[in-house]
Design goal:
Layout: E1 2-5, H1 10-18, E2 22-25, H2 36-47, E3 50-53, H3 56-64, E4 69-71, H4 77-88, E5 108-111, H5 113-116, H6 122-127, E6 131-134, E7 140-141, H7 145-161
Parallel strand pairs: 1-2, 1-3, 3-4
Antiparallel strand pairs: 5-6, 6-7
Helix pairs in contact: 4-7
């Protein structure tokens, strides 16, 4: 699914990108103050994206303009991911193999230790064999310390939506 998110959903934006969804974030559109709502609705319509918002009035205006819009009520990423799962009829799965860059939204590609040498700390290159490089911003990812946090959050989400592994 392709989404566009408002300024209150930055964390959700990164998580959806990790799950492989193409997500445009309002702060990346470069629009000025007071133009955000119009830009969100126009971009959603132009690119056939689902607008995710926590703004009741924006949700109403988007629907009136013929944009598929979903009002997010959760205050944390776990409950928001649950809402997306219910809306889409399937759970949101986090896997680096399918991810997009959480920073710029470009696809990630596999890379070996030799390719990332000099781009990651020496210790990381020595102890990790699998890396992913963003095809857009060239940021390098690996299953390091942050991966544990990602998996803990994913586990909370799985329990919340009832899809936890036995």
């Amino acid at each position: 699914m392709k989404f566009i998110t408002d300024g209150m959903l930055g964390k959700l934006t990164r998580w959806l990108r990790l799950a492989g969804h193409d997500v445009v974030y309002i702060r990346e559109l470069g629009v000025g103050p007071g133009e955000e709502d119009r830009a969100l609705v126009e971009k959603a319509k132009l690119d056939s994206r689902i607008l995710l918002t926590s703004d009741v009035e924006l949700n109403r205006r988007a629907k009136k303009a013929g944009v598929q819009s979903f009002l997010m009520s959760g205050n944390d990423v776990v409950s928001q991911l649950g809402e997306i799962s219910k809306m889409g009829g399937r759970k949101v799965e986090i896997a680096l193999e399918k991810s997009r860059c959480p920073v710029c939204n470009s696809p990630l590609r596999d890379a070996g230790p030799q390719e990332v040498a000099g781009s990651v700390p020496t210790k990381v290159a020595k102890f990790h064999q699998r890396f992913w490089i963003c095809t857009g911003c060239k940021k390098v990812y690996w299953r390091g310390g942050h991966w544990k946090i990602i998996m803990e959050t994913a586990s909370k989400y799985e329990r919340a939506v009832g899809h936890a592994e036995p």
